């Protein structure tokens, strides 16, 4: 196994480990002009003399956020190749972090999946194997269609929120108030399908079915569940931002204040057997479903009777 391996294809793109940087003869032979370092170890500056250099400071652990660095890393690689140079991407072993960044670049350039990009790299460097967390981030990057700015993408924002919930859960705490993502504040288009969930006491709409968290019933039919599990919604803000690990949810109608559900950041087991994390729920016994209706019946392909609308010329309007 060479310390410096070229990614198969026409690109002057190479991948290697930390010791690759000491093989100046190999670097010169490959025409390396740009070096992308993907690691947090202190680096000797003299190793990078004569190269355009970029550092992505991350550890090779599954909960590390490498996804946020994909756009900058891929731009650096692209600029190096576009200038007519050759690019080396390295980490400590040339196995996980460096492979992840090269995969992200190949995905963006060729519109291929993470597994296809990894297979291509392994043709020259079989040991490449991003850790499980990085592979999941690559899958998300693929689902997001490799955007130039991941931080403005709703899917990324939701992923960051879920990570925050998991870290808080591990510490036995509620997530920080500013980290909670209230999903209805990020919806750009209203979903007119499905149904509303209304307070049974005052009839106020509390949620729509687009904010339901689906889960697999572990025992019995799915409709036997006694709770609706939801994304955090803005009317829940006063309660969810208290910093409590668990609590109850009251109808936001000040004249009602009925107890409509509960939440548990550490998770809650549904009566069907599935464990939901985080668990933000409305009790079906305190909620009514209201099917949505289309405002314009003709939009649903329904033919209206002749007497339903204004009469034409020569006709009497009764």
Automatic annotation (TrEMBL):
One of its GO terms (cellular component) is nucleus. It holds the Pfam family DSPc. Residues 5-147 form the Tyrosine-protein phosphatase domain. The active site is at 91 (phosphocysteine intermediate). Residues 68-126 form the Tyrosine specific protein phosphatases domain. Belongs to the protein-tyrosine phosphatase family. Non-receptor class dual specificity subfamily. This is protein-tyrosine-phosphatase.
């Amino acid at each position: 196994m060479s310390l410096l391996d070229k990614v198969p294809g026409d690109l002057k793109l190479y991948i290697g480990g930390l010791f690759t940087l000491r093989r100046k003869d190999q670097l010169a032979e490959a025409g390396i002009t740009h070096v992308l370092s993907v690691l947090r170890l202190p680096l000797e500056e003299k190793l990078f003399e004569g190269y355009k250099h970029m550092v992505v400071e991350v550890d090779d652990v599954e909960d590390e956020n490498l996804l946020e660095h994909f756009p900058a890393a891929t731009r650096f690689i692209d600029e190096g190749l576009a200038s007519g140079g050759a690019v080396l991407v390295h980490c400590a072993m040339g196995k996980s972090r460096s492979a992840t960044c090269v995969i992200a670049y190949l995905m963006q350039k060729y519109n291929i999946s993470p597994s296809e990009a990894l297979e291509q790299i392994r043709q020259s460097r079989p040991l490449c194997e991003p850790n499980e967390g990085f592979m999941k981030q690559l899958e998300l990057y693929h689902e997001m269609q490799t955007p130039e700015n991941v931080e403005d993408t709703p899917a990324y924002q939701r992923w960051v929120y879920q990570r925050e919930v998991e870290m808080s859960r591990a510490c036995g705490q509620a997530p920080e108030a500013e980290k909670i993502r209230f999903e209805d504040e990020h919806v750009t288009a209203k979903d007119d399908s499905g149904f509303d969930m209304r307070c049974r006491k005052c009839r106020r709409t509390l949620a729509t079915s687009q904010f339901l968290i689906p889960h697999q019933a572990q025992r019995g039919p799915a409709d036997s569940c006694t709770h609706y599990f939801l994304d955090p919604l803005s009317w829940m803000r006063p309660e969810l931002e208290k910093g409590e690990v668990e609590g109850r949810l009251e109808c936001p109608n000040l004249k009602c204040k009925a107890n409509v559900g509960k939440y548990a950041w550490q998770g809650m087991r549904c009566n069907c057997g599935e464990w939901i994390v985080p668990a933000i729920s409305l009790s079906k016994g305190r909620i009514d479903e209201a099917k949505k209706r289309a405002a314009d019946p003709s939009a649903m392909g329904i033919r209206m009777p002749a007497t339903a609308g204004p009469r034409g010329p020569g006709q009497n309007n009764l």
